[in-house]
Specification:
This protein has 97 residues and is mainly α. It is built from two helices and no strands.
Amino acid sequence: MSTVTELTQTAQEQTLAGIRQSQQFVVDAARTWAEAVEKAVPAVPTMPFAEELPTPKQLIESSFTFAEQLLKAQREFAEQVLDAVAPAVKTKGPKQA
């Protein structure tokens, strides 16, 4: 029989696999769309100071770096709170009847 932890891990793995598959469909569709319209789209005029703006790739990199740092900080916070309350919620095993 599977434990709750094993069932949770299996559900998480299946969820991530489904997300990755959906993401791949979107990437494929975006690539197909871009290839179809690249010849039909006129050249975009250059904006003043455009070279000073971050590229889309730089924006993604910066945003995900921040998100990783935020998630790490949240995990550390949750672990510290758990450590702080551990003495009050310590379990001593099942109660005897």
